[in-house]
Every structure is written in structure tokens, then in C-alpha cells.
Design brief:
globular; mainly alpha; two-stranded antiparallel sheet; 7 helices; Four Helix Bundle (Hemerythrin (Met), subunit A)
């Protein structure tokens, strides 16, 4: 069976992602509006609404960057990079089916604050990544400024913070198991992206030598940001 040309595959992938995240953003917006309509106007309620708005903002930015993203110059080959990307990105959706448990108000508040912080960082990372964003391991344009001068994969690191907030909000064994699976496949995504970026951009070798992969060095925090390219 002959595969469609790369431009057609990229269009199909972009259209599918746009539709999926548009539906998710619409559902989140509807839920947030309903929660606001049934306002209790407490501090915990306000923070919970803030977490929902932060998630909505991130999904809206995902849609925007997907629509305008650049065509790939190189894509990871084989089945494993695609499976890792899909599981790493979408496995958290299964947490909807995990029964919720009652947690202490203090833990719920902490979880919401962590989630808001994580989503705010994700929005910052995605803003800098811009038209280079993709789900699969692909090289579009090398971004080394902003959060990408602190670690090479800041979006995955910040999504890990969001995942921590989700787990704390519902600390059950199934939630933690899904979280561990997500982290494992997110790491595989990063490894696969490293291979593609090294092959596509000769300067990536020097960049990787200077900048850590996922955990920042103290010396790398607070560096002046270059203009996004």
C-alpha cells in the first residue's frame, strides 16, 4: 500500500489534532462556564476555576500552533516513535474513567495551585515553541531561546508538573499507574525527538552539550532570553 506524500500526511495530522483539541477546548469551556454559573465564590472555588481556565488557555494555544505550524523537515521513522508519542500525549485522557476519591481541602488546594503553575509554564513553553509544535517526533525549526535555553524539552517537564497536580487531586493507584506510564512514554518522546533534531540540525550537538535535557542546572536559570525565531 502506497503512503500519501509527506505534505498530505502532515495536513491529515494537523487537521486531526486541530479537531481533537478544539473539541476538548469546547468541552472544557462549557464545563468552566457551568462552574462559574454555579458560583460559590470561595477561595478554593476560585482557584479551581483558575485551573480550568489555565487548561483551556493551553488547549487553545495548542490549536493555534497546530494550525500555523511549519512543515516538517525530518520525521522519526518506524512504529515505536509514533506509539510513544500517542501514548505520551493522550494517555492522561483515560484518567476521566478513574473514580474520584475525597481528599483533604488543603491537598485539593495544593493540587490546583500546582496545576495552574504547570499550565502557566506549559503556555510559556508552547508560546516559544510556536510553529515548531507537533505531537510526533519531527524537526521543523530549532528553538533554543526562552525556556529552551534552560532545558531542551521544557514542555515535557512542565507537563510533568501538571500531571503531579492531577495525581494529587485524585491520589489513587490507577491514577499513579497512568501517571507513571505517561512519564515513561514522554521520556521516550524526548529521546526520539533528540535523534530527529540531531539529524536535522548540525548545531543541535553543541546546543545539547550546553543545555540539559529535562532538569535545569542552577547556572542555566535566569539567563537572558533571545528573541523567538
Amino acid at each position: 500500500m502506497k503512503l500519501p506524500p509527506p505534505t498530505t500526511r502532515d495536513f491529515i495530522g494537523r487537521a486531526t489534532m486541530t479537531l481533537y483539541f478544539t473539541v476538548c477546548a469546547t468541552l472544557k469551556a462549557a464545563t468552566t462556564v457551568a462552574d462559574i454559573s454555579n458560583a460559590e465564590w470561595t477561595i478554593s472555588w476560585s482557584i479551581d476555576i483558575g485551573a480550568g481556565i489555565a487548561a483551556l488557555g493551553f488547549m487553545a494555544l495548542v490549536v493555534a500552533t497546530t494550525v500555523v505550524r511549519l512543515p516538517p523537515v525530518k520525521t522519526a521513522q518506524g512504529l515505536e516513535p509514533r506509539i510513544s508519542a500517542l501514548i505520551g500525549c493522550f494517555a492522561t485522557v483515560t484518567l476521566i474513567a478513574v473514580p474520584r476519591v475525597k481528599v483533604a481541602p488543603q491537598l485539593e488546594l495544593t493540587a490546583d495551585l500546582i496545576t495552574i503553575f504547570g499550565f502557566a509554564l506549559c503556555i510559556w513553553c508552547l508560546w516559544w515553541l510556536g510553529r515548531s509544535f507537533s505531537i510526533l517526533a519531527q524537526a521543523r525549526r530549532l528553538v533554543t531561546a526562552g525556556p529552551y535555553q534552560i532545558v531542551r524539552h521544557p514542555l515535557y517537564a512542565c507537563e510533568g508538573i501538571v500531571l503531579l497536580g492531577i495525581i494529587l487531586r485524585n491520589p489513587t493507584w490507577p491514577t499513579m499507574a497512568v501517571g507513571a506510564i505517561v512519564l515513561a512514554f514522554q521520556y521516550r518522546r524526548a529521546v526520539n525527538e533528540e535523534r530527529v533534531l540531531r539529524a536535522a540540525f548540525p548545531e543541535y550537538q553543541e546546543y545539547a552539550r550546553r543545555v540539559p535535557m529535562l532538569l535545569p542546572r542552577p547556572s542555566s536559570i535566569g539567563l537572558p532570553a533571545s528573541e523567538p525565531r
